[in-house]
Amino acid sequence: MTTKSNSHPQERIGVYVCHCGTNISAMVDVEDVAQWAADKLEHKGVVIARDYKFMCSSLGQELVEKDIHELKLTRVVVAACSPHLHEKTFRTACERAGLNPYLCELVSIREQVSWVHTDKVAATAKSKAVLSGGIERVLWHEPLDPMTVPIHPATLVVGGGIAGIQAALEIADAGHPVYLVERDASIGGHMAQFDKTFPTLDCAACILTPRMVEAGMHPNITLMTWAEVENVDGYVGNFDVTVRQKARKVITDLCTGCGICEEKCPKKVIDDVYEAGLGYRKAVYTPFPQAVPNFPVMDVENCIYFDTGKCKACEKFCPTEAIDFTQEDEIVEFPVGNIILATGYDLFDARRVSNYGYGHLENVFTSMEFERMNNASGPTDGEIVLRDGKTVPDSVGIIHCVGSRDMNYNNYCSTICCMQGLKFAHLVQERTGATVYNFYIDMRTAYKGYDEFYQKVLEEGTRFIRGKVAEVTDVARLPNEEGKLIIQAEDTLIGKQRRIPVDMVILSSGLEPRHDAKEVAKTFGISCSADGWYIEKHPKLDPVATMTEGVYIAGCVQGPKDIPSSVAQGAAAAARVIGKIQQKEMALEPVRASVLEDQCSGCRICNDLCPFNAILFHEDTMLSEINPALCQGCGTCVAACPAGAITGTGFSNEQVLAQIEGLLMDMSV
Amino acid sequence: MSEYIFYPGCSLESSAKSYHDSLNIVCEKVGITLNEIDDWNCCGATEYFGINLTPAYALITRNLALAAEKANGTNTVVAPCSACYLNLAKADYYMREQPKLGTQVNLALEAGGLSYKPGSLEIRHLLDVLIYDIGLDTIKSNVVRPLTGLRVAPYLGCMVPRPDYEKRWSDHEHPVELDLLLEALGAEVIDFPLKTHCCGGHMPHIGPETAYEMLHRLLTSADEHKADIMATVCPMCQMNVDAYQGETNQYFGTNHKMPIVFFTQLIGLAFGATPKELGFGSELVSAKKALAKIGTAPPKTKKTRKSKKKAGLPMPQPLPTGIRINEEEVIR
Known about the structure:
- The structure holds 2 protein chains of 2 kinds.
- By secondary structure, chain A is an alpha/beta fold.
- Chain A folds into 5 domains: 2-144, Lumazine/riboflavin synthase (Rossmann fold); 149-244 and 332-344 and 542-588, FAD/NAD(P)-binding domain, CATH 3.50.50.60; 260-317, no CATH class; 346-512, 3-Layer(bba) Sandwich (FAD/NAD(P)-binding domain); 593-649, Alpha-Beta Plaits (2-Layer Sandwich).
- Helix content of chain A is 29%, strand content 23%.
- In chain A, the strands form 12 sheets. Chain A has a 5-stranded parallel β-sheet, covered by helices on one side. A 5-stranded parallel β-sheet of chain A has the order 20-27-21-22-23.
- In chain A, strand 32 (615-618) and strand 33 form a beta hairpin.
- Chain A is globular, with a radius of gyration of 31 Å.
- The model of chain A is unreliable at 1-6 (pLDDT under 50).
- Residues 296-303 and 325-332 of chain B have low confidence and may be disordered.
- The interface between A and B is medium-sized, with 34 and 23 residues.
């Protein structure tokens, strides 16, 4: 043990113990910890040990800087909060005083000590051990220099919903090129399916389509619809993106978007995507009248020609010969500097809640079906009718929290359903005069103008029943229930079971991560929560960045949210990207891993473990190599390598072992 | 040949004898050997748990202890009665969840020189074994007399699909296992909305009006769906629907004549066994008229011309019936 300190006899260490107001000092005797370090660890090289109320304040930082100058410190150890919060602060302070910032070590005595313990004596002893570990470790630190990489000015935006459109437009307006890649035939996303938006009830299409057109026409935006990102290589500033442009079977250079092919196509297919299964489309189609771009796509699976070899009606009637049955998928590759993921959400499949009867009982509808029904361009031309296509309902029940706040399905609140339910209630009442019942667990109408809307709907005479619905059934018990759907629910405000007969039931289905969210996260090297929502770098202070440099998230991909929040996140992500582009080049953390080639056995264990896809395997030499720009220095591969062939700057074996020895130091001597 | 430990339960000795007889025939056909637990006792049915919990758990667990002793190459206990199935599963589950309960129960069992380690046995219902171990293909291949033309209401009652501690069923509210099984026999299965609703349990004895009300709902719905017969997996459901149908009719002034039999009786029929050996005839509401329908081809439906009238809106597709929806298969 002593040999280690002997190998660093010349180091001069400054130790700083923070009170963090009373966050630390209430549970840890910080003066004692500092005094102890000064007395007992002098032989390790500690030349000064101080405690201070707020080390992160400018006065606290100046203290460190002054000591570096005056006491000729060569190492700094700060015992305070988690490195996540203030490592950068103290590294910068060291740098200002002329010390390489990577010679500073932060040990956490707040998150890992004062906040989690209740015994002050034991907490103080633990703080000393943690500090001792930090001191042993810092002796092995080496000065490091950040690596700078150029930033490519182009940005990839994945997902053409309102969040993606907003992000693309902001970046394009700032003068930078954007690739907007959308899986469906048109941009617009879920918002394009809606009729009205809460709480202002402005028409969704009226506010969305101008933005869609703008994105479609913008000289800085390359729009790629009917396309999917297949692969992403590289690192922040220098990503190489591979996109599969699916075959439209329509030559877009020739197509004028006249719509004759769609008109003449004899094959009618239920439209599960845009019409939510409530309406039909043709086998060659543009999903909706305002689609951007306005070129149709061919649904090969349902096309009569691809099935039987006959038909070709679309080709026959196309005035510009734009139909091309032989068209194949195309692979397009391009470099970008930053990526924004705005891939949105899937609607919870209401068939899973079998007691609500969706799929069994014909007049049970999902929220998305109702949105389409209510939409003037939808399958009923905006008429609110039952499944028979003609009967106007006299009474409608709207069930909230379907698949949300339910331990059988999703525990989380989908946030938009309360307001959506209120919007539906208003629209049904306005357009049909029907009696509307809202079944809710809790009414959640936070944000601007939302609660006022709730009060307005209350005044309009909508009935509100607070309680979870047990069942929707067509089995009547009383004469007035005959031929109706009966909603059985506990009314928790009067403490009674109620059975309410209605003509139509609308299920306010919750939001779920995209079914392929996990695979997509892997393609982009980011992580998602157990639910499948993508994880932001910090839930409060960095909500649109991810742990992977250069990859940002916006909209519902990060969690359920409404249109204003999605737009705000799209703009926020764009602002972050524009900031990065304007730096032209950026410094990368030098804390990263590298493979010692002569020790690597080529076992590839590290390849799959890397959460950032930073490890490349060379088939010819049978060696793994770590891309220094992609590596985030997490250390997973260092720990996993069976040959010990991977070492990390900042977390070398020597550093970690020294830290452990420090932690285990005998306090009694 | 699949071997299982068998817990028949009291009903199968008496009121549900036809269940016992028919399941023996069916099991033999599909290659199931049932090894009955020696000296088993009553499961406590629905009543005992309402009176005194620990003795109730001890009573039921005695059977598990005996079964565990008997376990010879298999650790699966099959219970055909839904109350037995639920009680066995419940005891095993709660003893695992609450170690204190397990200790208490084992202390009681010690008096008889027995003990049971919770979780050491799998407790399954006969329907579950027939569907998931034997499989629909084997069942189909044994059908010699398809139940063509017979409209059957599949009725599970409330205790088999819920609470489903081990997640064995496709859905708690609308499980499809019994439907698929009856369909495999060639029967016309109605989409019975009350298939998991309660039959009234022991209410005929303590609050008959409540029981009549619940039976009335079941019978009315089965009639509305034009069922010829109800098929159940539960002796109590069979007893209530069968024995109290007359009183229900009297109480409501209705004229339901809905026979209810055990699903194994219908399987046996399709497998070619005689109604007599399957215990038909012991039901109070006679199944004779329904049985007469089997073998007669359904009348051909007249071809109608396509209506030019504007069609209604399309219905959502029902969930694909991959019987049990695995974690991976869950449709998002």
